[in-house]
Amino acid sequence: MNTPTEKNISFTPAKIKITSEMTIPKVFRRIARENKKHIAIERKTSVNTWLPVTWQQFEHEYRSLARGFIGLGIQPGDRVALMCHTSYEFSLIDFALWSIGASAIAIYETDSAEQAQWIIEDSHCRFAVVENLGMEAIVTTAQKSCPFLEKIFVLDHEALNTIASISEEIKDDEIDARIDNLKADDVATIIYTSGTTGKPKGARITHRNLLSVAMNGPLDDDLFNLITGRDKRNLIFLPMAHVFARFTNIMALYAGNTVGYTADIKNLAADMQSFKPTYILAVPRVFEKIYNAADASTGKGVKHKLFRHYVNIAIQYSKALDTPEGPSRRLRIEHRLGSKLIFSKLHTIMGNNLQGVISGGAPLGERLGHFFRGIGITLLEGYGLTETSAPCCVNRLGNIKVGSVGLAYPGCHITSDEHGELLVKGDSVFDGYHNNDEATREAFTEDGWYKTGDIGTIDDNGYVWITGRKKELIVTAGGKNVAPAVLEDRLRGHPLISQVVVVGDQKPFIAALITLDEEMLPTWLTNHNLPPMSVHEASTNPQVIAAIDRGIARANEAVSRAESIRKFTILTNDFTVANGYLTASMKVKRGKVLKDFAHTIEEKLYTK
User: Fold this and answer.
1) Which CATH superfamily is domain 19-210+231-263 in?
2) Which of 166, 261, 496, 512 has the fewest CB atoms within 10 Å distance of its CB?
3) Which of 393, 457, 446, 447 is nearest to 421 (CA)?
4) Is 425 helix (H, G, I), strand (E, B) or coil?
5) Per residue in 469-503, pLDDT tens?
6) Residues 36, 64: contact at Cβ < 8 Å?
């Protein structure tokens, strides 16, 4: 039985209580009218420049689109499937549908026809807007089993102009009447969780849910200076089908920021240099990539040793900030020298304007957190789920405990039950799973706490520390409980490693499946005087294996002997979103990996 304990509850009061009359389109209608000339968004062009879009322009465009949706016959409560990369168009469609009481149901751009079909069928979408012909083919396949899906619009074919021109005669009064009839507890969207088994569950996210997190974060005393104001610039590059990016967009626009969108994470460095964000929100894999790219770019020999030396100085400096005496004189001198020689180059890579970053979606390694803070970029680790509309806790400026996920987010209550499972209450907690009352009942305690499925502790100061997923805890044959995240987080910081899955449930020892980072491999090989080779060749190369082995030895220093990795095997294919082994937020689908690689695990790791 999941019963909240009395030991600790983390709670931060909300500055704004969401009333029944408050909805996303109503709040932003006021913002648009009061800030007509303010630049809300900058649109990326094909030559990597950014065109300003004022609130007046943005509102005009999404209301024009809203008229067209009304002309198509879309009624309040209707749903439109949206399969599209992160972009200005995604935001435009979101706001247009909200303005007429409807909602966009996002399909990940990497989803298969089967996945798209389930989402369209379960949410009963009447129309679909897709980005290109490839996505149209996927949704068209789904349409065969979903006869209620009336029409598919393709953005490649000027779909938005086509939709907007359908009913230009519709008056603003009709849009405003629909906005005024909406209530806070009406569903704003349904977000389908990327589950590891079975069909994804559709989490009903209300206007109250999203406004609670979007409006209260920017008003928090310790977050205000990072995310609030017209001088702040936020670049969104995570998939907007995911709750993290959806929340980020609404929050940044509410906070008065200028928002930019980019679809391809491979171009992130160039986009950051041209857009010059003041802060970003991202998943840990992005920060691991930035660190690994910087590490690889230093080459070999003296330069590489120098980089590694000042990485350690940055980490030591950050750790010293948490001590009563602070950094020593010697450490301060070395840190200043590192800033000139190394750290300034990293700032340039990230646009020379970055003040802070917020990490969520998966655990961030403590070493990486100290590194970024040590080079002068505040990294605030947070924690949340689809069902909590993204954040339910986050570290704060001036109140950082590296390794924790911080204090409760404004308006959230967090506690734990007798088994250590974290429980959450607040206005941000979702309305339930669409068409799945049984799953909804199972998700809550009898007295209304949402069961996160994550194991953690809350210290005496209210900071939350995540141990691991309840379902992911490994129990070895010897009865030792092992949280795989501790080892996996440390290993993903290795320049050769892309993904790690620690295994060993009911086995005599802990082992690991490793995948190589195909992008980083060529640079690593050059730096180590090795000839070019494929990932397949590298997986059996003695020097590569030895390098991974050394990385595992360092990671094992963080755990006991019984929890340490004794054996590993390198797979020849990476885990990706495209092949179904990663969720859109870059988390490994552990259950699918364990099932599909069961033979490899048994043969390579546990057969003598």
Assistant:
1) ANL, N-terminal domain (3.40.50.12780)
2) 166
3) 457
4) strand
5) 777 778 777 666 787 887 888 888 888 999 999 99
6) no
